[in-house]
Amino acid sequence: MDDHSGSGAYRLGLSPARLLLFSVGYLLSVIVGERAYGSLAVPSPFWFPDSVLLCALLLTPRTGWIALLANAAGVRVIASAVPGTPFWFLLTTVSVDLLKGVVAAWWLQRTLGRTIRLNTLHELVVFFGIAAAAVPMLSALLVAPARIALGDRFWPSVSGWFMGDAVAQVVVTPALLYWCRGGYKGLRGRVREAVLVMAGLLAIHYLVHDHMITSSPLVLYTPVPFLIWAAVRLHPFGAANVIGLVAAAGMFRAVNAPGGFLTGSPGEVVLSLQLFLLVVAIPVLALAVVTAQRESDWKQLQVLLDAAPVSILMAPDGSGRRIIANKAAYALHGVPPGSNLTVDGSAGASQPFRLTRAGVEIPPHDLPLRRSARLGKPVTGEIITIERADGTERHLHGNAAPLYDDYGVVRGAVGAFQDITEIRLAEEALRESEARFRLVADNAPVLIWMSAPDGRRVYFNRRWLDFRGRTFEAEAGHGWEDGLHPDDRPKYVDACDRAFAAGSTIDVEYRLLRADGRYRWVMDCGVRRLDAAGEFSGYIGSCVDITERKAADGHLRELSGRLIDAQERARARLARDLHDDLGQRMTLMQLSIARFARSTEGLSLEAHRQLHAILQVVEKITVDIQGLSHSLHPSTLDSLGLVTALRSVCREFGEHSRLNVRFSYQEVPRDVAPETCLSLFRVAQEALTNVVKHSGVGEATLDLSCDGDSLTLVVSDSGVGFDLDRTDQIGAPGLGLSSMRERLFLVGGELHVSSTLGRGASVRAMVRVRPDAKPADPPDVATEASAR
Prior knowledge:
About 55% of the residues lie in helices and about 15% in strands. It is α+β, with helices and mostly antiparallel strands. The strands form 3 sheets. Strands 2-1-7-6-5-3-4 form a 7-stranded antiparallel beta sheet. The protein has a 5-stranded antiparallel beta sheet with strand order 9-8-12-11-10. It has a 5-stranded mixed beta sheet with strand order 13-14-15-17-16. A hairpin with an 8-residue loop joins strand 1 and strand 2 (about 325). Helix 18 (about 545-600) crosses helix 24.
């Protein structure tokens, strides 16, 4: 079977039943060709067996060709030939016929592909050139010596053989192929026409040919009108079968009742019939194929146009009195398919729609298609509104272009229009939404801005422009950055760069120049904007003036600093009183009890034991007082310096809390300010206390280093860690971060905390060795900005 053939077509295969069918058909064709008309001297007008064999080869895979050829050879030998045919001549002609069929089938498939349908003019021309011209001529030259051996002359033998093969391939083979390829399906809806054509041909044959109304050779062409009818209306299948009917009628006439224009010797009669069939069949088949191809192209174009989501209209003539369209256009106008869409009244009743432009009905002569046809040039950018009978409106946007005939004369116009109703509604909704947004944004008590994907500011609300005292043109792009405080610009740029890189929010505080020439602190928060497709389209943010809050924070920090300073002074005084007063008196009491125990004689053993117990209690109280005094204010910090004090506190945590602290330091100067030493000492105490309480591990590291005028203290552990964001939100209860920040702020330092759940925590304190100046920004603000 040919895998490329149509699914609905009848196809030959290699099954025994199909081979038997081929054998029967081939046998009948041999009988018709040899017995009905033909002799050893005058061959048949067209050789049926060649057509049957070629069709079978074209419809069968090449692996089955051998079986077909073997069956064909057997049929030819069994059927024998016309009386008087030598056996050697029979073998020669059979061999040439089989070779001819194989060569033609192979050549056609090599040129046109495995599936040959004869549905295009190209296929038909190639088929005629190979199967009806080249191969018959080669076979005629090949068999000519055998005909000469029988006594025939060279040219008559060659021409007779060639004409018989050529006419068969032109008249019979196309009809067989169209039948096998399911060409009869194309006659659906046109069966009556086919019957009328066949009846007309039979009537002509009966009246003109059988009764010979006239003997003029022109009578031979009386079937031509019916052949043209078949070619135009019945597709190639109908035309090929009508040609076959004409050929059969002509052959029947030549055999049974020669006369009129079929007179003369048998050879002349055959030649006349062959020439008639070639002259008529080739152009009729070509016309049928071209007509069917154009009809098929038009149907495909119609399907394509109907599938198009836009309205396509065409005015076949310049007057515009008839306008056809695709399904989308009919549906858009609210009329049945096939209606005439003209609006000039020539369609009869008035149309159930009006065409308007900007609310005014468009005159018929000013419609895009008519205007384009009248002016002879395209009309572009037309916007038309269709007011339908049901009260709805549809808005169209499109173009029209003139149509030209073969001589370059305008013969009509075509237009394509897109339904933009939803787009218009969306634009109106967008404009309304933008108006609402601007109304809300301009009256919001905050400064609102919007940026493009590259960071350029493209929108500011009215409050922003009033705050800055500048126009939008001056602020747009990066112009607004002229109002950034020079000291805050690096911080803002860094925050934006990190937000853009990470796809996160912008959250930063900076000073912005107000219209009165004063800098105001603002808190700026920006979030990502996404378009309808989910693509990043920039940031939208708002700024809140926090100058008063900053001032309040400053006052609170100043008060906090005073409280811490007062606390430290009170602790120092209490530690001094405990050490110098109560500690000394407890020491004196301890010495007095010891002297009393040594100088008193005659006391019982129990009395001595009680005195010893009292002495131990006094000694423990003395040690506790010394420890309390040291915890309130370490004396080693004042006398021996920061390094010794930190080493002492590490040792104390190891003794009392079983925390192994690895302490390291390098290049720590001796002239560190006392207040700086105290702040770092308290941060170390608080951080190590957090390790003991929260880390869940027994090890920590404490590192003290100096880089120029910067002194850095780092306390870290590898414990459970904590969520830094959540800790910032809830105020870090129990961690003492606020206290550490406040202490460092008093000496111009900063605190940075980093932690990850399950990976420990790190506290980094950075101060100047000599805090001669306080920082401009509160340290917690710098910490928050860098943490983000």
